[in-house]
Design brief:
The strands form three sheets. A seven-stranded mixed beta sheet has the order 7-6-5-8-9-12-11. Strands 15-16-14-13-17-18 form a six-stranded mixed beta sheet. The chain folds into two domains: about 45-270, Rossmann fold, CATH 3.40.50; about 300-400, Rossmann fold (3-Layer(aba) Sandwich). The protein is an alpha/beta fold. It has 14 helices and 18 strands. The protein is globular and about 70 Å long. The chain has helices at about 45-55, 65, 70-85, 105-110, 120-130, 140-150, 170-180, 200-210, 220-225, 270-300, 310-320, 350-355, 370-380, 390-395; strands spanning about 5, 20-25, 30-35, 40-45, 95-100, 115-120, 135-140, 155-160, 180-190, 215, 230-240, 250-255, 305-310, 330, 340-345, 345-350, 360-365, 385-390. α8 (about 200-210) packs across α11 (about 310-320). Helix content is about 35%, strand content about 20%.
Length: about 400
Amino acid sequence: MSRDVIRVPCPLCGGQEIRAVWSHPKGAENGVCLSCGHIFLSRRASEQALREAYAAYEQAYPHDFLLAPDNPLRRSAQERWTQMQEVLPRMPRRVLEIGCAYGYFLDLLPPEVERFGIEPSRPQSAFARDVLGLDGVLCATLEDVLAAGTWAPGSFDMLCSFHVIEHLSEPKVIFQAAERLLAEGGILAIACPEMETLAPNLTEIEYLAASLHLHTFTRDAMDRLSAFHALVPLASYPERNQKPYPGSSHAFLYVRVGGAERPAPARPPVERAVALAAAWHHEMDRRCARLKAAIEARAAAGKALAIYGGGVHTASIFNNTGVSAESVACIIDDDPAKAGTSQWGLPVLPLTEALDRVRPDVVVVSTLSSEDKLLGKLSGILSPETEVLGVYRDIMGPPFGDS
């Protein structure tokens, strides 16, 4: 085992007896705590390695993309808020978002709502403040503001956090913050991957392999964790904002209750968690093998194949499915900053240049949120002889429950 890979006990209960359900050549191992049923990376990158990985991690979007009113990030936030309003008992007055990124969700709330956010990324928090005008956004971590006592207990009637908790070494901190900062009757809203509804998303394997996703929650684990922090379930549902597969993100909403109403944690269904995690990884392995076979069969037939999209989905194709870069002629990407660079030893070209220079026989669209958009775009450009495949629509297949 690499010195940068460590074994860790269960971060929820401290349990040491873990059943492994999946491992990666880089060293990551997904396991289930046999004491409480929590699914987490029981072997992962060290804390120092994680800090270095996040310091080097870039998800830089062009400024014009961020400003576009219909960009996928804003659309996703809009769908999240629309769906959430279907279950909220009332409109919140003071909202804190933990890990607010560029601020799109906060920006969608009605102007009479007082909006606050915590975001450790300087560029993202600056965009939220300077471009969207969200003056209540702080560039800080949750641990920073809790230690500083930035807000008094009971300061908010809604606390939300979307796709943050799965990245935290100590996920309990979000529930601790809710217990402290929410007024009685306040709402905690969390979105994250959930094991039972998790779709066959290449990013999940990439984030697990890189120790960026440290947990895959089940509803049982969430409800049990919430019960320890004076929170009772309000609603739970797959989010509709994940295309083409609802289920890549799951929402959990809880209500802060008083001391007399504090619920008793339920007994953890450990074997169910083991079965869910093992089944997901088995099916994900099968679909990754299908993707590898589809790409390499076309390369073996002498076809020039281009992958459209130079992001995390394509990274996962090369890092986690066994696809060789020798099977691919080029990467197509619409980001001008990537033009003329190389990824995985392959040239990165704008679409028009790739069509002129490479003249691909096959174009594989490698994205999730923009798959339909790019497939539609290509249908109006490419000749009928060029084969166009969506990684998810045509190769990976439908959500697990529909396969």
